[in-house]
């Protein structure tokens, strides 16, 4: 592949990735002024990894986690965002996201396509300490934004404390128990006051 062809492929991928800015999520910004988009979320959780990596289990690669988080929601360009508390067909979503990953990473030169798809697949599988910490941060950011915004998306989706503890708590406990122990009392206090 010539340098020109390689740059053409890389730029096609980067232009397509820009579409993530148009995917609206169920969470609002911390100030509650509007709903965030998936690109903002990806950037924000990558920043979480940079800032909170000292709370990761020993041996976690901060750089690998940041890469996973920058890539993890790209598939939403094709598959859309699924709210955490929605009742959905998880198998159909997984198939749609897998097809999206194949298409999107397939835009890149083969070496980058293989490497980035492996990072995305690793994040999805959540079998390594890096992936489990990345998943934990992905689930840790939304309740922090809910707490800051007065629970807007929890209210919008009629979320229960049990749902939050299960859908958010389990992945955080698995990948970053220190973070779950820190936020759980705050979540319980919010639900006690508002439900």
TrEMBL record:
GO terms for cellular component: cytoplasm. Residues 19-180 form the HD domain. Keywords: Hydrolase, Metal-binding. InterPro entries: HD_domain, YfbR/HDDC2. SUPFAM superfamilies: HD-domain/PDEase-like. One of its GO terms (molecular function) is 5'-deoxynucleotidase activity. Pfam families: HD_3 (PF13023). This is HD domain-containing protein. It comes from Roseovarius gahaiensis.
